[in-house]
């Protein structure tokens, strides 16, 4: 199926305040809405799971909200003209006809494009183009959301570029991507950029505790491993089968790493084999190992900053076994295997070499 359709439904009415650590992008978006200068294309860039799609939906609602201070309505219900100006309120009401349709995923003029399989294909862009050739059904501003837009292959990218070069009336494109460098530069140059930030460790931890009842220690450790992504933190926990299993796995890993220097070579190699077999969670496992060595360094300066707090005694003890230099080198060893994971080349061997080096005191 070529996925050009409407958005999935939202459970609750989101406004810009639900976004965490995104002051700058929210400021840029609200300025656009307040001034009423809606550009033809926006590019939302930043790591996965920080609220880019949510922001896009709120923005689409705000562009078309009829409820709160709609201003002088001269052309039917339309508030804005894309590329034109009409100042308005930045927060959507969440209650009017337009907001409700967008929230329930039933607005015909909010068009959602996402990969069909691994790619966004040219057929999807063609189908999008024929939709855009018609006038919007009811929206003042039609919004085209292109999620994972880096998955557009070249023909699809070129087809989209043609659309962006002659943008249809009353239409704004919002392209969502992790790294701008993954898009065709000619597409990038046609968009106004909005950069989203990784979410801070403290805020991810608090989010996990409040919304999903994680205990505080688990939440903080997961937050450190998730590298700024709320969704990633939840995915990691789910991929282990929930927070308890994740904590068990982490304890096992730290235990293995902590006792490495005293292990016979055979056991070190067996550990490498076990790690290499759990490929889907390998990068998370290596992040945990990295966090352990990082803790061995930071505990010398401030025990407050230790991530794996429940292992504080071992960490303080382990820290004395290694020089600062050798700890930095160990972190680099883990880092270099992490980078090799996507290439999938000789992972087992790389893990063996890494563990043998980590075992040295
Ligand atoms: Zn509304």
Number of helices: 15
CATH architecture of the largest domain: 3-Layer(aba) Sandwich
* Biggest sheet strand line-up: 1-3-4-5-2-6
Q: Report the count of strand segments.
A: 6
Bound molecules: zinc ion
Helix content: 40-55%
* Estimated structural class: alpha/beta
Strand content: 5-15%
**CATH class bucket of the largest domain:** Alpha Beta
* CATH topology type of the largest domain: Rossmann fold
CATH superfamily of the largest domain: P-loop containing nucleotide triphosphate hydrolases
Overall domain count: 3
H/E series: EHEHHEHEHEHEHHHHHHHHH
Rg for CA atoms: 24 Å
Low-pLDDT runs of 5+ residues are 69-77
The largest sheet is:
6 strands, mixed
Q: Alpha-carbon distance between the termini?
A: 56 Å
Can you characterise this structure?
The chain is of the alpha/beta class and 361 residues long. It has three domains: 4-195, P-loop containing nucleotide triphosphate hydrolases (Rossmann fold), CATH 3.40.50; 200-239; 240-359, Up-down Bundle (Zinc Finger, Delta Prime, domain 3). The protein is built from 15 helices and six strands. The protein has helices spanning 23-35, 52-64, 97-103, 122-132, 154-165, 185-188, 201-212, 216-225, 230-239, 243-258, 265-277, 282-298, 312-319, 324-340, 347-359, and strands at residues 4-5, 41-45, 110-113, 142-146, 171-177, 192-195. Strands 1-3-4-5-2-6 form a six-stranded mixed beta sheet, with helices on both faces. Strand 3, helix 4 and strand 4 (142-146) form a beta-alpha-beta unit. It is elongated, with a radius of gyration of 24 Å. Residues 69-77 have low confidence and may be disordered.
């Amino acid at each position: 199926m070529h996925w050009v359709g409407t958005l999935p439904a939202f459970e609750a009415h989101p406004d810009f305040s639900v976004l965490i650590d995104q002051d700058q992008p929210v400021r840029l978006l609200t300025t656009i809405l307040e001034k009423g200068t809606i550009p033809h294309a926006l590019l939302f860039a930043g790591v996965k799971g920080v609220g880019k799609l949510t922001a896009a939906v709120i923005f689409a609602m705000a562009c078309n909200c009829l409820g709160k201070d709609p201003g002088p309505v001269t052309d039917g219900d339309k508030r804005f003209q894309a590329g034109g100006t009409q100042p308005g309120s930045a927060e959507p009401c969440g209650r009017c006809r337009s907001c409700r349709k967008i929230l329930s995923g039933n607005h015909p003029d909010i068009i959602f494009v996402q990969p069909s399989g691994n790619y966004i294909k040219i057929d999807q862009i063609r189908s999008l183009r024929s939709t855009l050739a018609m006038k919007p059904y009811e929206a003042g501003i039609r919004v085209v959301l292109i999620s994972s837009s880096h998955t557009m292959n070249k023909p699809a990218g070129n087809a989209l570029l043609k659309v962006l070069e002659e943008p249809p009336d009353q239409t704004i494109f919002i392209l969502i991507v992790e790294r701008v460098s993954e898009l065709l530069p000619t597409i990038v140059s046609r968009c106004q950029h909005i950069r989203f930030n990784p979410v801070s460790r403290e805020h991810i931890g608090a989010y996990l505790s409040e919304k999903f009842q994680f205990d505080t220690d688990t939440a903080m450790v997961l937050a450190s491993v998730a590298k700024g992504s709320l969704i990633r933190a939840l995915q990691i926990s789910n991929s282990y089968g929930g927070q308890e299993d994740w904590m068990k796995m982490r304890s096992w890993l730290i235990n293995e790493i902590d006792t490495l220097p005293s292990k016979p070579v055979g056991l070190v190699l067996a550990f490498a084999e076990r790690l290499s077999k759990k490929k889907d969670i390998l990068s998370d496992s290596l992040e945990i190992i990295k966090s352990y060595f990082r803790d061995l360094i930071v505990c010398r300066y401030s025990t407050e900053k230790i991530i794996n707090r429940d292992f504080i005694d071992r960490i303080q003890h382990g820290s004395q076994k290694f020089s600062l230099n050798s700890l930095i080198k160990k972190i680099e060893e883990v880092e270099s295997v992490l980078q090799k994971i996507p290439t999938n080349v000789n992972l087992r061997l790389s893990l063996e070499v890494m563990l043998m080096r980590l075992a040295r005191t």
